[in-house]
Amino acid sequence: MSQDYNNPAFKKLLQKLQEESWQLELLISGFAIFGLFQATTPLSIASQEARNNEHLFLFVILIVATVSCYILLFNLLLHVILRGLWIGALGLRYVSGDIDYEELNYSQKFTTYLKHKIGSFDRYIGNLENYCSVIFAISFLLIFYVIAFTLTFTSIGLIAYYLLDNKTNSYEWIGVPLILFIVFGMLFTFIDFLTQGWLKKKKWTSTIYFPIYWVFSFITLSFLYRPLVYNFLDNKFGRRISFALVPIYFLILMATSFNYKLSNYLELGLNSNAYTANKVNYEDLLDKEKGQFIRTASIPSKVITDRYLKVFVLYSENTEDIIFEFRPDLKPDDDTRGLGTEMNFSNDFSELRKRDSLRPEYMKTLNSIYNFKIDSVTYKPQFVLTESTTEQFGFETYLDLKNVPNGKHQLNVIRKSLRKKDTVESTRVRIPFWYFKD
Predict the structure, then answer these.
(1) What is the dihedral of CA 332, 338, 339, 344, to 10 degrees?
(2) What is the per-residue pLDDT across 356-403, written as a single tens digit (0 to 9) for each?
(3) What does the mean pLDDT of the chain come to?
């Protein structure tokens, strides 16, 4: 079939399909809207969990998926509304026909104005049809734009991480030119997009721009959707709609950012400290179904009545990096952190046995880099690996409150790190609580 696109019979089939495509558009939009409404909340919760757990790679993927869902949802809802208006207009035309301006019996001034501004009712129906078709098609094209934007910045991040931020080998002579090429290439590609292909029109600019265009076609995966792009650009109506939607998205984003401030100094969401108690540090206030997760560390509640205090410290890859700074001998030759598969094709069990034997030293080092303070009294942790009530990965310990008086207190979670071979301590979080003995 792909070889018969010049066949008159195939062109006739396409003409028939495009005339009846509105039925498929409505069917797809209905199923997609239902699915998107079901997917947005789980995606938002998962992205919030990834952010709190400092899983950057997973967080980026989930954010892109969430943004794509909201773009599709907005466009498809708009498409369904306009398509419903179009169907209503068709029904009205069947009953009433075209607009009879003479029957309205308006003055000549208004009749002339309305004929010029409104014109034929069929033209109105045709415009609605064009809007519906273009919005439906551009909905999916915009998702590709989001992916292209993400892949471009991801490539910069990967180059910076693997070639410039490499502590063992220096590849600046490769990394710096690559980043400069991508940054300037991204700028030229964006200018070409805004000017609707101006860099491709001039002979001297097209010669310079062609290698950038070729490379970015792979970075942004534009070779997959390029026919859609040029089909929009060769049509004035399609160009107007595609450019009008982008500022609409920014206006919606700006509108959702408005909130009402009650105070110049106080607001909800501040990090926990001596005068603020953020719910992300109290397990009994968290609801995973609403996307609420532990951030940095947590205790059971604001009011403690037991003679001990359970403290949960959230794990992050940064924690393991600090452990390796204090104990370089614990760092494995093959760092398995990050995205990977659980399928093991290696028979090297000696590495697994080595890691099992070093795990006690790992936990010992972890205990040594953390300190806890309740007011001014220092406590040493005895961590065990566990999962929090919100199913987050981390470490748990218990502090004795035998000598702590009743009233308000503050827990300080302190972590050591190396800075230019000097050991420094930083307070990760301050959590206020009230202690009342039974």
Answers:
(1) 20
(2) 788 889 999 999 999 999 998 999 999 999 988 888 889 999 999 988
(3) 82
pLDDT of residue 341: 61
Q: Which domain holds residue 374?
A: 279-332+350-435
pLDDT range class, residue 29, cuts 50, 70, 90? confident
Q: Based on DSSP, count helices (H) and strands (E) in the chain, helices before strands.
A: 13, 9
Please, which residues bridge with residue 297 across strands? 313
Q: pLDDT by residue (tens digit) across 307-358? A: 999 999 998 878 888 888 888 888 887 777 766 666 655 556 676 777 778 8
Residue 276 β-bridge partners:
273
231 lies in the same domain as 291: no
Same domain flag for 168 and 304: no
Confidence (pTM): 0.71
DSSP 8-state symbol, 402: T
Q: What would the two tokens of residue 56 be?
A: 């950057």
Residue 269 located in a structural domain: no
Let me know whether 177 and 237 are in one domain: yes
Nearest to 141 by CA among 24, 81, 224: 224
Within a domain: residue 263?
no
| DSSP secondary structure letters along 160-214 | IIIIIS-SS---HHHHHHHHHHHHHHHHHHHHHHHTTSHHHHSHHHHHHHHHHHH
Q: For residues 381 and 60, which has the higher predicted lDDT (pLDDT)?
A: 381
Number of structural domains in the chain: 2
Position 432 confidence tier, pLDDT thresholds 50, 70, 90: very high
SS3 content of the chain, % helix, strand, coil (to 5): 60, 15, 25
Whether 22 and 56 map to the same domain: the answer is yes
Residue 219 shares a structural domain with residue 317: no
Looking up tokens 């498809």 gives 76
Same domain, 287 and 380: yes
- Structural domain ending residue among the three candidates 255, 290, 320: 255
Strand order, beta sheet including 303-304: 303-304, 422-435, 407-419, 370-374, 377-379
Based on the domain organization, do 323 and 238 belong to the same domain? Answer: no
What is the rounded CA–CA span in Å between residue 294 and residue 389? 9
Q: Which H or E run contains 102?
A: helix 101-104
When pLDDT is averaged across residues 93-110 and rounded to a whole number, the result is 82
pLDDT value for 344: 59
Are residues 119 and 35 both part of a single domain?
Answer: yes
| CA 393 from centroid of its chain's CA atoms | 22
